[in-house]
């Protein structure tokens, strides 16, 4: 699988007790959202049938400038997903929430054994060499080949399924809301059952419209949920969002903490009672600043009953590992 790098500049503003504005991009390699394998793959490993034990649940280089926080007020969307159950707790603190984002270039995930990490994802539908001790969550990166070729086969046996990767960004899945809803109904809905939950497309933390005129961030997600809201034909069990901090860590840690918390609040509000996943987030800058950021936001995530799963970007030397071993930042995240 090849790496895809892009640069996207996002100007983020968010709503809390006061309004804050700061630039939050997806610069350089730090946002290399994986587009999946160069050829279709079939999951024949044991991961596909291993249920979760503790469940808490890049494209071409592009430069885009958007503003977070705009748009009309969200329309209330009833929760048509599955209610909390023993395998999907709503009151636990961090149990089963922490996951790992990885790809074929990542060091072995075995180094995170005996940590608080319980699940993993790799922007693809097959787990590769991920240890079966972690729950693998397949992703349908887009509705295009090769991603959709063996999707149903690879998704079989998994309890949670994620859909299109950042359809609101031109260099990623790049899908208008109507097209995404149609593809979701065709490729995701048939797999949903009383034991299989499906996630809405993972949106970025941008807002306004991208250069193609497509809404971004929770604006895109809001429209998707409004269109996919029929208990008989289109149901979403959980929503997904991605967030990145200031380019190069140029903002203060506190600024990024406030921005991230504001985005999570916006995502939870947009979800309207559905579970929330954050399968990709990262503060840029040095390790000390990233560790300080994690130490500030992890307790908030773990105490938020709406947030069921989250994963820091990503398992790679220079981020969560050094020379293939868990470093201080990785230990701060994994517990």
How many helical elements? 6
Helix vs. strand class:
alpha/beta
What proportion of the residues is helical, as a percent range?
10-25%
Number of extended strands: 13
Strand percent estimate: 15-25%
Order of helices and strands: EEEEEEHEHEHEHEHEEEH
Computed Rg = 18 Å
In the sheet with the most strands, the strands line up as 6-5-4-11-10-9-8-7
User: Cα distance, first to last residue?
Assistant: 29 Å
Low-confidence stretches: 1-34, 36-93
State the shape.
globular
* Overall pLDDT level: 79
For the sheet with most strands, the description reads: 8 strands, parallel
Describe the structure.
- This protein is an alpha/beta fold and 335 residues long.
- It is built from 6 helices and 13 strands.
- The chain has helices at residues 151-155, 177-187, 217-227, 253-271, 287-303, 328-334, and strands spanning 9-15, 19-23, 65-67, 98-101, 119-121, 135-136, 160-165, 197-203, 238-244, 275-282, 307-312, 321-322, 325-326.
- The longest helix has 19 residues, at 253-271.
- The two termini are 29 Å apart.
- Residues 1-34 and 36-93 have low confidence and may be disordered.
């Amino acid at each position: 699988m090849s790496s895809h790098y892009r640069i996207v500049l996002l100007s983020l503003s968010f709503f809390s007790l006061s309004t804050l504005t700061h630039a939050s991009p997806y610069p350089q390699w730090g946002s290399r959202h994986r587009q999946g394998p160069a050829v279709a793959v079939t999951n024949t490993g044991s991961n596909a049938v291993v249920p979760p034990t503790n469940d808490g649940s890049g494209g071409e280089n592009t430069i885009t400038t958007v503003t977070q926080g705009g748009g009309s007020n969200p329309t209330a969307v009833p929760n048509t997903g599955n209610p909390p159950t023993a395998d999907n707790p709503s009151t636990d603190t961090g149990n089963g929430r922490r996951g790992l984002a990885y790809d074929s270039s990542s060091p072995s995930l075995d180094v995170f054994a005996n940590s608080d990490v319980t699940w993993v994802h790799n922007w693809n539908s097959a787990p590769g060499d991920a240890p079966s001790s972690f729950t693998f969550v397949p992703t349908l990166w887009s509705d295009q080949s090769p991603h959709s070729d063996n999707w149903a086969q690879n998704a079989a046996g998994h309890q949670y399924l994620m859909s299109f990767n950042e359809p609101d960004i031109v260099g990623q899945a790049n899908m208008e809301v109507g097209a995404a809803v149609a593809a979701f109904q065709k490729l995701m809905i048939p797999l949903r059952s009383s034991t299989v939950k499906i996630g809405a497309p993972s949106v970025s933390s941008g807002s306004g419209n991208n250069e193609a005129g497509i809404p971004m961030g929770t604006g895109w997600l809001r429209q998707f949920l409004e269109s996919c809201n029929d208990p008989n034909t289109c149901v979403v069990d959980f929503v997904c969002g991605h967030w990145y901090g200031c380019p190069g860590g140029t903002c203060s840690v506190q600024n990024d903490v406030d921005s991230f918390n504001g985005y999570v609040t916006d995502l939870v509000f947009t979800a309207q009672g559905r579970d929330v996943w954050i399968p990709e987030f990262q503060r840029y800058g040095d390790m000390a600043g990233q560790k300080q950021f994690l130490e500030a936001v992890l307790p908030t995530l773990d105490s938020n009953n709406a947030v069921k799963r989250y994963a820091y970007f990503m398992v790679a030397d220079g981020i969560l590992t050094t020379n293939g071993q868990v470093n201080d930042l990785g230990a701060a995240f994994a517990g």
